[in-house]
Amino acid sequence: MAIQKVLNIEDDYFKHNNIQRALKLNGINHIDHAINAEEGIQKVLESIKSEQAYDIIVVDMHFKVDGEYSSEAGMHVIQRLKSKGIEIPIIVCSSMNLMIPEVVGCIYYHETRDLNLDLKEMLREVKN
To answer: Which residues contact 60 (CB under 8 A, 6 or more apart)?
Structure first.
């Protein structure tokens, strides 16, 4: 599977820029951005409706849902997409070290980690 189009749901612009740079280093140049759950879900639905669905979604865990910050925001997005039967592969990229069975994998976003390498490994999982 060729990965060409990615949605990153992340409200921290510094972290979004780091993820975007890592995606570009891994050959992905079409990267859309959403800053909250509602915007992210809407972009996913619009991409499917236009028959240009995202190849993967990268999602944080902590951002706004219904106007309120939530440490479970990423799970809200994952569950909403699953409940709609949307099967786009999801990678969680969070400053919390997580294991979530419903997704391709979780990247621990931390200064001691190599984001480029971690993302490359996750993208390899999606391609297989």
So the answer is: 9, 10, 11, 12, 15, 73, 74, 92, 93, 94
Domain count within the chain: 1
Give Cα 88 to chain centroid, integer Å.
Answer: 10
Q: With contact defined as beta carbons under 8 Å apart, do 27 and 55 qualify?
A: no
Count of C-beta atoms within a 10 Å radius of residue 54: 23
By the 8 A CB rule, do 26 and 120 touch?
A: yes
CATH number for 120 = 3.40.50.2300
Domain region containing 70: 5-127
Q: For 48-89, what is each residue's pLDDT tens digit? A: 999 999 999 999 999 988 888 888 899 999 999 999 999 999
Is the whole-model pTM more than 0.85?
yes
